[in-house]
Amino acid sequence: MKLHYRKSGAGRPLIILHGLLGSSDNWFSLARVFAESFEVYLVDQRNHGQSPHSEEFNYPLMVEDLHAFIQEHNLHQPAIIGHSMGGKTAMNFAVKYPNLLSQLIVVDIVPKVYPVHHDHILDGLHAIDITTLTSRTEADTQLSNHVSEPDVRQFLLKNLYRTSDSKFAWRVNLTALDAHIEEIGAGMQYEGTYGGPTLFIKGAHSNYYADGDELTIKSIFPKAEIVTLNTGHWVQAEKPVEFSATVLHFLNRA
Description:
The chain is 36% helix and 17% strand. By secondary structure, it is an alpha/beta fold. It has a 7-stranded mixed beta sheet with strand order 1-3-2-4-5-8-9, sandwiched between helices. A two-stranded antiparallel ribbon has the order 6-7. The protein starts with a strand and ends with a helix. α2 (59-72) packs across α3 (85-96). The radius of gyration is 18 Å and the shape is globular. The protein has 2 domains: 5-114 and 185-251, Rossmann fold, CATH 3.40.50; 119-179, no CATH class.
């Protein structure tokens, strides 16, 4: 699958993978910071952003999408950052293709199985009647019946766009995500380890980490460093300055 991407900067290649229901748009501000030192590729994963839709959706497919992207653009050992679902893609890629990346940064996700916990969000998005929708404010009102946090609703509604005839449509493939909701929480798909430089950044108030997760991380990523920032799950959005400083400190040690 040919993935949509945005490129900026010059230097060593750096690929950034967004999380579930996100897109490359979420990383624009941080990309400008990283582009001062790196050639940054903001990639839309399949069924997200402006990348193609597919009925198939799982981590092995997203790993192969990423592999094809790196080959297509002749990227030599890029560093890879992945948040949440993007972190799962990045971790699986690193284990399957350990020689094709230089450094791995995983943001607020662990290489383990997570129970389904996005179903209420998908239900809320499906409940929005885009055939009669006239404004984003109206969409926000409808979504508030399912998602109470205004900042989360704002993030989710970035997936809405206007078509050429001024109708609303979804960039994200909700049908495929619904059909493969359990795949999103899947654990590692490949046996083995990645022995390269690895940084895990977690939010102190995130519920994606639990006791014992550090041992799980170290069993697969033996060189992993783990840094905690005073945030929830959206680490890069809540503390962008601290996040970018942490990332650059790690990347510049290579």
